[in-house]
Queue: 2 jobs
Job 1
Amino acid sequence: MRPSGSLLLVAVSLSLVIAAPARTRPHYGGTLRVAIGEAPVSLDPAESERGGREMLPSLSRLVFDTLVTVDARGQAQPGLSPSWQADPGYRRWQFSIRRGVAFHDGTAVSSDAVAASLRTANPDWKVFAAGEAVIIECNAPTPDLPAVLALARYGIAKRTGGKVVGSGPFAIGRWDPGKKLALSARDDYWGGRAFLDSIEIELGKSFREQMIALDLGKADLVEIAPDQARHAVLEGRRVESARPSEWMGLVFSRDIQSAEDGKLREALALCIDRESMNNVLLQDGGEPAGTLLPGWMSGYAFLFPTAIDLQRARQARGQVQQAPVWTLGYDASDPLARVIAERIALNARDSGMTLQTTASAAADIRLVRVPLPSLDAWVALSELARSLGLPQPKFDGEPLQPSASASTAYAAESALLQSQRVVPLLHLRTAVALGANVMGWREDPDGSWRLQDVWLETGKP
Amino acid sequence: MRYAVYNLSIHPPINLRTNLRINLHVNLRIPGMLSSFSSRFFSSLLFALLFLVEASAQNWAGAEGLLVGKIASATGPKTMALEVLNRSSLNAALSDDIRRNLLTQLAATGVRFLTAEQAAVSVRVTLSEDLHSYVWVAEIRQDAHPPAVVMVSLPRSGVLAVEPAAAAMVLHEISLWSQPEPILDVAVIEGNPALMLVLDAHSVTLYRMQESRWLVEQALPLTHSRPWPRDLRGRLVWRTDGDNSHLFDAWLPGVYCRGSGSAALAMTCFESNDSWPIGADGFSQSAPFMSSRNFFSGTLSPGTGTQTTAPAFYSAAAIPREHSTWWVLAAVDGKVHLLDGVTDQVMEKLKWGSDVASLRSGCGSGWQVLATGAGAGRNDKVQAFESIGREPVAASIPLEVGGAVTALWTGSGGTSVVAVVHSWETGEYEAFRLTLTCGR
């Protein structure tokens, strides 16, 4: 029997009273207080990659615009450059420069200023101004240059007297290297004034210090370690997790030296129990990885097995008479890295190999964490390869095109993995805990924050 | 009472920028309960859907043919065991269709299908996806060789999931347009051909309906000297006042644009802090919009009854009464205010979002208020409310949308509301026409 219309109306009316909080338009105003673990000592975007992990690009984009941005689907969108074009060989590019944009010191973002900034960021390019546009000439075909220019290190900066000035939605108010950064919103930002009036960022705080600051109401936004995200949810905290994106894996310090060396590397890759690493050590804070790019980004990661295969590992190990003792180095300041390194040593022992963990930087193998550098698959693959000391992936067999197809990326990534220089372990989720008044939180799939879209419920309109 | 529920979600063909996407949620009483108008209306929509099903199938076939070609060139006409796995967001029915089509097309190349033990070749096709494409991967195993891998990619876009509705009044959504850039407002003029204006941050674009697709007729760039606010809003109104040279008006923060012309459109924009129209035709108010923010000041013109001021608000909806018009405001203070011409009453129980709009459905009291609110997960919802006494009460089951509602404006004539949704799944901005049909 169907309920009558009146009953339905009553039910609907009741649902009205107990409905979830209403969705409101953003409010302007207020100061967002952030605490993070990274402690960069420079804000210059050209130096960002030397500062540490993924926080810096998110911060850098608040102050420094890039010519191009990459949207949440990995596609290039206009930034400081509203349009661009390339020659048929993708070596010579022309980027027009948006009119009427100024640096935070009031000077115009001219094509000359943009060219100077890009020359600093990449001395290998030939960059020069041409009227209201900038010409970039690359040494090799670079069909993905727009997505490359969206990387934070290509943020457009004016460098004078040891200071850097950007044109982004926030200007630097106070900069205490490695300790504190205070930003204030620019009313005249070409992309629309940010909702927040200001952002105060405490740097170099441990996860514990960050959580205490959140609990004491001294921070509105803190990071959570991948292995702590589930616990934080169970404690009733407001947690936002991104897709598994930060690559964690082993990097050999040298290329393969012999066939036996290759067999041992194969054995090591096969004996690691990624599933239990993720479930037990990480509390499902990531997912097992057999590739550099995560599956949600590439679409083909399932082709690379991640399951432990101890039998094959022992077979491979058995083909080498005398196995050397390898040292496995990890970042001593990263508690997660230590437990993962120890688990790998245990797994290796099960296959008849010996790994000695060490906090020393000089090791045969390093346990490495690298944030996903871009949402463009090809740029991400190239940047990961660069970070890990691998050769640059190459387009193979397909005509040049602005965006690599899945099959092109698959071929390139297969070649990188076949070099046996790296052993993928996990893709980790980045997570944050938010105060109750933080609204409009947006995080790209790669874990980048978009603080320019955040607003505070307590802010005054 | 028996109902037939047609809940059809059509996955789009490859050309996603065109309006080949309809999420139709029809709740029809049967048998023989449709008015002649409703019958024509739904028949047209179902016909359009059938066209889209066909169009969609043809485009899947292109990708299927490409993959079959790659498999066939790797294997030749051998005996084959085919397995199809779905790891993507495609639903089971589509996945089954694709599997059947792959079998058919492979058979046409001379392949015979046997069990895995008997076949010379084993092929596993995995329907996967990346950030913006479907990725179909075939792993081909023959003899003792490592598997060969071939793959094809085709653009993907999501489909809004709509929950079944069964309330006294039923909200329907019809997709009008989607694009990556934020849509501020859309106005459609029915006719032959139908015309549509789309307002975004850069332009007003005129589209003409041709063979069930909206084709760009003309793009009129907006001119403005100051940066737009981050939460940009805009209003677009077709002029129906008989002045043929004045065709439409567009309001944006600090800017007013006037569209005119006959054979070709022209648009002139002015820096202006003139008031924007709020409400619906016949029950219009205007209020100044704060040019660097995202809300209206509380000054109303001409006002309602003795009231010409109100709290600052995001949106307003008229509730026509027998001898007066009440106004519901979604105020910046997060509360819903009811102006009855004399008093400003805060409706404490109403937990609405920031966007409200009037809709003349002819059902119930004739006019309803559509209001946004938080739906399941990160999705917003839109729900119709009826004013019984002073307190608006829900008149429909909420319509869950697959994203955040960024605009809700009463359409020309008041018989529909334009809603713009920022889709979580596709990342695109999608404009819908919302209408209400009466229940019992």
Note: Residues 86 and 395 of chain A are 18 Å apart (CA to CA).
Job 2
Amino acid sequence: MLRYCLQRLVACVPVLAVVAVVVFLLLRFTPGDPAAIIAGDSATPEQIQRIRAGLGLDRPVAVQFGVWAGKLVRGDLGESFFFKKKVAELIGQRLEPTLALAVGTVIISVLIAVPLGIAAAFRHGGWLDRGLMAFATVGFSIPVFVLGYLMMWIVALKLHWLPVQGYARFSDGFLPFVRHLILPCLTLSVIYSPLIARVTRASVAEALTEDLVRTARSKGLPELRVLLRHALPNAAVPIVTVIGVGLALLLGGVVVTESVYSIPGLGRLTVEAVLARDFPTIQGLILVSSVAYVLLNLLIDLSYLLIDPRIRY
Amino acid sequence: MNTLVREIELPPTEETRSARPAALVRAVRNWSVRIGGVSLALLALLSICAPWIASADPTLLDPANRDLLPGARGTVMLSDGTTVSHVFRMGTDSFGRDLFSRVLHGGRLSLVVGITVAALSICAGLVLGLFGGYLRRVDMVLMRVMDGLMAIPSILLAVSLVALWSASLGSVIAALSIPEVPRVVRLVRSLVLSIREEPYVEAAISVGTTTGPLLLRHVLPNTLAPLIVQATYVCASAILGESILGFLGLGIPPEIPTWGNLMAEGRLQFNLYPHAVFFPGLFLTITVLAVNLLGDGLRDTLDPRFSRRGF
């Protein structure tokens, strides 16, 4: 068991190494001088020279990568040229809103999508099933920002139920914190939950056709117990998997949602960094989100051991 | 052993013998394909005929017509200098430009970006996937690289690529294509891995077919159906991606009317004139929905075995 966990952890290393190489090359393989790109349009030749020396650009590429990767491993993501701060510190400051948004979205999506998916699987081909699948197709297609503005217009501008934009920190009080998060989280959930609902439906529908469900029913168990005790545990692995796979989708959606609702999180930071061509920050953000994605999927892989006792390593 | 099992599972039925015409007929009979296809054709027609349907110049600034509501009447100047009375069906933006005309012209770019990105990433993914699936030595390295690329959220990758290159139509297309390639490579590779075990591939090898012709003649044609389905999904996500880049102010230069750029301009006065965001948003949603419907329909009819959403 412990050996398996370690093995899986080691298996993440090549993926993360590739991410690091890609992020490194992103700046090196672009047309023009990386030092000039980093310094920006209004930099003096001395500034460019200083950045070049600071980055070690006068040394061979392999050495440059070694130095850069060595710093990364120690948690040093470099320094932002635009914000004049350590990138790691910058990301730490902007982490809370994004985490709150992501966690809120996952909770809402799972609460909506899993029961709906199960219901659709029970009434396979019924109106709920068809309705859900139609909703899923629309949910896949509607752009996050269109939906965001639509909800903002109806709920905040016309009905005045919730604040229009902005973010309240958790330390500012629980109620304002939640009130500011509801709309952005709901917006992202409409995009994220169809994916979970579709897989839940397919997976539960398949589990319901298995012999063990027929046996459970023939024992005279109530339908709810058949579902919770017998069908759902057998359908859980794909559902948990898709929640993890969808996280990549969610991370992308966060960039846009934060922009729509003016939330000062990592998504806003990404846009600000790109507009300012602040490459150390962009590189740091890509690295952090990729590491988060890989580690979350590792956790999900390991959770199979708890969900399905048949899986033994 | 594997081949044996598969032969027992799939005896040559009526359906597999005449697979090609039946699949096409099934596709045309499918309602998702019909609705998606017809809507797309209409949207394409609208954007191709944009200069004739929407007579106002989409880039003409006119301070007298600023911030008009949908359906307002006014006058516009034509390219020959004469002024005519004009109904602004979708209103105007804060520079007095006709939104209807801008939305229709924006459709051209969205469709061009969607189709080009789909074509580019499918071609690149096909070549890499064919070699990866067939040559074991390439496979190992290739798949690790693809795993790494897939760990980077695609919007983040596209955004940073656009930031590196100067924003133009070409760089947006390239930036949207690169994150899609790994998904296509994975699909092609998994298809090739199963196709290479088929008896007809073994037969071709046994009569001395070399790798190149083998891939082209026997493996490639069997990857086409799932790839067509995948192409529609790539197209939908590219249209979305282009508008996201535009919306964030990172895409095609803002003076060119694209749906994302229109919404980026509209959001500044969203409180007062929400129509400037909603009309391009509506067209964008309908377009993506149409492409996705077409894809879902094709998936159900062309190849129900392999095709799944490329997440």
Note: The longest strand of chain B covers residues 72-77.
